[in-house]
Design goal:
The chain is globular. It contains 22 helices and 24 strands. The strands form 6 sheets. The protein has a 6-stranded parallel beta sheet with strand order 8-7-9-10-12-11, sandwiched between helices. A 6-stranded parallel beta sheet has the order 15-14-13-16-17-18, with helices on both faces. It has a 6-stranded parallel beta sheet with strand order 20-19-21-22-24-23, with helices on both faces. With 637 residues, it is of the alpha/beta class. Helix 2 crosses helix 3, helix 4 runs parallel beside helix 5 and helix 10 runs parallel beside helix 13.
């Protein structure tokens, strides 16, 4: 005896009986043996509407094993790659995944049915990767993004920033079928090699039995040592081969966060470091993004306070020291507060904590000078001495190592030379006097310096500020202050346009905290379509746009190319149309605000933060004002 299963079709919002139309040539009824039907391993659900969870009838355990496939409800084993993947993501602490359809459709179904994980459909694969990146940086947990085979290259491009910023992002992509590889399958290329350059770990899951092992390895690689993105390619253009295969394997019970493990330092290295630090006459501590990843903000400030040492931050570590702290000298490097470069240049010892000491922070290795002694503390062995070959180095977790250093400080240990602290205060005071007229400017169009001052004052005490690169990063690095310990700062590692999607991911990671995007119109245009994503999901980011109607950071290169003065059709290369983004926002049902006078900035920002997002604050700023670049110049005596 056999059972014939009625074909059930999937419409946009509900399932329709196959009997309402003739069977298509490529379709066929499914016939099961009596033994298989009774086993419970395969089951059919008839006509269950899936459009609204509120309207969905309660399903039995057997019915929950059923999923949609190619226009009808079909059956699948009770335990599959899809069920394992969904439940493992949930167990690991993932609360949102970001994707462009279609990818891992059965896994997404399982996430809806059995977890509270949010599934966010974006308008592009790069945006999905950027959202996962923002989510990871804001939460300290891995962010997850997905794309089918044809979108894999776009997804890989979005992982570049996560790699540079040491952000734990886990990317899933579909891959070629084994039987179609190298046969000119429609839209198929060899995407897998692309991920080697933008990940810490990339693997092809050839068989479902390898899924538990490789999934665990991927999440481990993303979160141990120096965090970073990882990638798994699943066979089938949408990963369906792994999803549909039978897999009966225990789901792990481990919640994964950064840092995954804490490496303890060598006690001898700690003692040597303390000797070097306390003997310096003009020391400076530089706090990098690794301090945030380790949760070592309190320890690094305590060390600076106990020894009376000025403390600078990298741009990525800007939120590790409160901006108003009397020892904070600001951000040195390419996107700096000028006084920070001047102070680091006068130091006789620079102690980098949790920093890659790259060109951004060191002004192309001009700050500090080559004669300055350097000390480094990092979790990643390859970072130690990479750029400063004679550096005193400590391998270890920042929080644990700084605690060890604090334990060695005697109760009556003398602070740094008062003359050094007085000199630092003098350099900072002179800088403040130079920029005060710009910060208080009433010019129209608005000066960006005035915008950063008003934003500093308006930020909620627990806000997370997400910042794009280019002039947005330069204005934020030099002029924006985070004056409350609860405020956070996330900045792209160099991908213009990262800010908008990343801010949405950050808000989904921290729904109870205000999230503020600070970007320019050039960066905002990149992924403007994600405003619809914010509207659709009600993602409450407040987006502040420094709108100068241009890519005015390019004035210098184009002026040089045109012989020193701008003439002819130069504007084609860096001017944009004068678009009011508040109107764009309103067309999508998002609150929009337009500011053209400096006197309206404070009240408008206050209103936007009070009403919450999603919201866009379009600030009309002066196209001719350029953010100052970093220079390796010592302060006047």
């Amino acid at each position: 005896m056999a059972f014939t299963l009625t074909r059930v079709l999937v419409g946009r919002s509900r399932l329709t009986s196959a009997q309402s139309r003739p069977r298509l040539a490529h379709e066929q009824d499914i016939v099961l043996s009596e033994k298989t039907a009774r086993s419970g391993r395969l089951h059919v659900v008839r006509g269950i509407p899936l459009s609204s969870p509120a309207n969905r009838p309660q399903m039995s355990a057997e019915e929950k094993g059923s999923v949609r496939r190619r226009g009808r409800i079909v059956t699948m084993p009770a335990a599959t790659g899809a069920t394992y993947l969904a439940h493992t993501l949930d167990a690991y602490g993932v609360t949102a995944v970001f994707l462009v359809p279609t990818i891992l459709s059965r896994t997404l179904y399982e996430l809806e049915q059995h977890t509270t994980v949010t599934r966010v459909v974006t308008h592009g694969e790069k945006a999905a990767a950027y959202m996962a990146d923002g989510y990871a940086r804001a939460s300290g947990r891995p962010g997850v993004c997905m794309a089918q085979t044809v979108g894999a290259a776009n997804l890989a491009a979005g992982l570049r920033d996560a790699l540079l910023a040491c952000s734990p992002v886990v990317a899933f992509t579909g891959g070629p079928f084994s039987w179609s590889r190298h046969r000119m399958q429609y839209q198929e290329i060899e995407d897998f090699p692309l991920f080697k350059q933008v990940t810490k770990f990339s693997a092809h899951v050839e068989d479902v039995t390898r899924l538990p092992e490789l999934l665990a390895r991927a999440f481990r690689a993303a979160t141990v040592g120096k965090p970073g993105p990882v990638h798994l390619e699943l066979p089938g253009h949408t990963g369906e081969v792994i999803e549909n295969a039978e897999l009966d394997h225990a789901v792990p019970k481990e919640r994964i966060e950064v840092p995954r493990y804490r490496v303890h330092p060598d006690p001898a290295a700690v003692r040597e470091a303390m000797n070097v630090l306390t003997r310096a006459s003009r020391p400076v501590i530089v706090s990098g993004g690794g301090v945030r990843a380790s949760g070592a903000q309190d320890e690094i400030v305590a060390l600076a306070e106990r020894l009376g040492i000025p403390i600078a931050t990298s741009l990525n570590g800007k939120d590790t020291v409160v901006g108003s702290h009397p020892l904070n000298v600001g951000v040195p490097g390419l996107y700096p507060r000028a006084s920070a470069n001047e102070i680091v240049l006068e130091a006789d010892l620079v102690f980098y904590v949790g920093s890659q000491t790259g060109s951004q922070l060191t002004l192309n290795w001009q700050v500090p000078s080559t004669s300055t002694r350097v000390m480094q503390l990092d979790i990643e062995p390859t970072e130690l001495g990479r750029h400063f070959i004679d550096a005193t180095t400590i391998l270890g977790d920042a929080k644990i190592t700084l605690q060890c250093m604090l334990d060695l400080i005697e109760q009556d240990a003398p602070p740094s030379d008062p003359a050094w602290l007085n000199r630092v205060d003098e350099v900072r005071r002179r800088w403040q006097e130079r920029v005060e007229p710009l910060l208080a400017s009433d010019d129209v169009p608005i000066r960006p310096e005035r915008l950063t001052r008003e934003l500093t004052h308006a930020l909620p005490d627990d806000a997370i500020v997400v910042v794009d690169t280019g002039h947005a990063g330069m204005w934020a690095g030099g002029y924006l202050d985070l004056n409350h310990a609860g405020q956070g700062f996330l900045r792209t590692a160099g991908s213009l346009g990262w800010g908008l999607p990343a801010s949405l991911g950050a808000k989904l990671a921290q729904p109870d905290r205000p999230v503020v995007l600070f970007t320019g119109d050039g960066g905002f245009w990149y992924h403007l379509a994600e405003l619809e994503t914010a509207a659709r999901w009600g993602i409450g980011t407040v987006m502040v746009v420094n709108n100068n109607r241009s890519l005015n950071q390019e004035i210098g290169p184009y002026s040089a190319a045109y012989g020193g003065s701008l003439h002819g059709r130069h504007a084609e290369l860096w001017h944009f149309e004068d678009v009011d983004f508040s109107h764009v926002a309103e067309s999508l049902g998002i609150r929009g605000y337009r500011v053209v006078k400096p006197s309206d900035l404070a009240s408008t920002l206050e209103q936007a933060f009070a009403e919450g997002g999603p919201a866009v604050v379009d600030v009309a700023t002066d196209m001719d004002i350029l953010a100052p670049k970093g220079v390796a110049t010592r302060a006047d005596p």
